[in-house]
Design a protein that fits this description.
By secondary structure, the protein is an alpha+beta fold. It contains 10 helices and 15 strands. The longest helix has 26 residues, at about 60-85.
Length: about 325
């Protein structure tokens, strides 16, 4: 009975599939099947019930999993503790975040991460669902929005600022609003995520209370990436985070329609947050990733207001 066989057994149990476990480890399915068969022979019990559609744990398999998983976790902690003494992270880090943030921010940064830490492998899991970190064996999650309420250790990577953006052509045709209330006269692009309101919030140093504007529009999109593309195409104004539009603002593919105002979809305290399971120590690979992200994510500079379209808008209204 070998450690690698037990690891494969635990992965098959988690995935419910020999083929999925093989893909996860980069192996041929037949190799996984042979490893499980060898483990069953060594233990003298059948670990899985096999069918053409799926595999499921036997009673003996469930008992063996309950006892072996904590031992595998302790072994991984021991390896991480030993690796931490070298100061160089190694192994595979399982990281999850949203589709938009992972596509726009994390994936482009992986080349620089590899240059800094060549021994660190990353498995990036992009999902807009809140994946359970413990059951899915996730080392680190990045959540975007208000402070997460899930369990585990939570730390703030950076603040997120939202901007109401539109294409230069749209701004030239319809002008920039003088105040948030003028957005009610635009057909805005809205997020169609569950729980997202059609009310945009704004805050200014010149007003004591936040301003809430009910926006209207006939286009709602569930993907921030697609929403940005629609705004680029001149379809209307959209409220999007700085990490998604900063390059477009700098290149003038988009313009900030209300740069003097702080915008928010839900909370003005939104940010990018790291979440990881509570452990007696922070693995070297996790600490290396957090430190890298803190250095990679920097506040964006404010964008200056384009005056000419605003003047035209003010004259029409």
């Amino acid at each position: 009975m070998e450690i690698d066989q037990i690891k494969l057994f635990a992965e098959v149990a988690r995935q419910g599939s020999f083929a999925a476990a093989a893909r996860h480890h980069g192996l041929d399915p037949s190799s996984v099947s042979r490893a499980i068969a060898a483990l069953e022979e060594a233990l003298g019990v059948r670990l899985f019930q096999r069918s053409t559609r799926r595999v499921s744990l036997t009673e003996a398999g469930a008992t063996f999993l309950a006892h072996s998983e904590p031992a595998l976790d302790e072994l991984e902690r021991a390896r991480e503790a030993a690796r931490a003494l070298t100061g160089e992270p190694t192994g595979t880090l399982r990281l999850t975040t949203s589709m938009a943030f992972g596509t726009a921010v994390i994936a482009p940064a992986l080349a620089e991460l590899r240059r800094r830490h060549p021994g660190l492998a990353v498995e990036l899991i992009l999902s807009d669902d809140i994946i359970d970190l413990v059951s899915e064996k996730i080392d680190l999650a990045i959540r975007i929005g208000p402070m997460p309420s899930e369990g585990g250790v939570i730390g703030k990577l950076c603040e997120t600022r939202y901007h109401v953006v539109a294409s230069p052509d749209y701004a030239d045709r319809l002008g920039l609003p003088e105040c948030p209330e003028h957005l009610a006269q635009h057909r805005c692009l809205r997020m169609s995520f569950s729980g997202r309101r059609s009310v945009w919030r704004f805050r200014s140093v010149t007003r004591a209370e936040p301003v809430e504007v009910m926006v209207d529009g006939d286009v709602a999109i569930s993907s921030p990436l697609a929403l940005r593309d629609a705004a680029r195409g001149g379809l209307g104004p959209a409220m999007l985070p700085d990490w998604l539009v900063e390059d477009d603002l700098a290149a003038q593919r988009l313009v900030d329609m209300l740069p003097e105002w702080r915008a928010a979809q839900d909370s003005f305290e939104a940010g990018a947050w790291v979440v990881y399971p509570s452990r007696s120590f922070l693995p070297c690979k996790t600490r290396a990733m957090i430190d890298f992200l803190k250095g990679h994510l920097r506040p964006t500079a404010p964008v200056k207001r384009a005056a000419a379209p605003a003047e035209r808008f003010a004259k029409r209204h």
